Amino acid sequence: MSITNQQVTEYAFLRALYEDGYYPDSVVDKGKAILQRLCERIEAEQPADLTALYALTEVATEEFNALEADFLEAGSEIETVAREEIAENFWFVATAYGFEDADAEELVAAREW
After folding, report:
1. Is residue 49 left, alpha or beta, with left meaning phi > 0 and alpha meaning psi from -120 to 50?
2. Which of 7, 22, 5, 4 is nearest to 82 (CA)?
3. Residue 29 lies inside a defined structural domain of this protein
4. Is residue 89 part of a domain?
5. What pLDDT band is residue 73 in, cutting at 50, 70 and 90?
């Protein structure tokens, strides 16, 4: 499924991580794919409320938790800059799909980073 939300298709996911040499592009690409899959799921499932949205973001957050091992293996990690960038991208996704009332912390509540 391809993403139809124009605001999302034009967005540069994880831009700050791509611009910082500390984060390997190959691992950041995996993070970008997680966010794109989240968008595809939101478009496919059309969550009716914040509870349904949070269920989708929990799955994506858990994928980022697993991605931490890839960062470590590549000599990097999900630290302050990455945590903030990832959380901001989750917030962007929520607002792009009309969930302006989403709690930024709740979007990534399952994070281990």
Report:
1. beta
2. 22
3. yes
4. yes
5. very high
| 1 lies in some domain | no
Considering the entire predicted model, what is its pTM?
Answer: 0.97
CA angle 86, 61, 12 (to 5 degrees): 35
Q: Which domain holds residue 26?
A: 6-107
How many domains would you assign to the chain? Answer: 1
Distance CA 77, CA 69 (A): 8
What does the DSSP assignment read for 54-100?
HHHHHHHHHHHHHHHHHHHHTT----HHHHHHHHHHHHHHHHHTT-T
- Is the CB of residue 10 less than 8 Å from the CB of residue 54? no
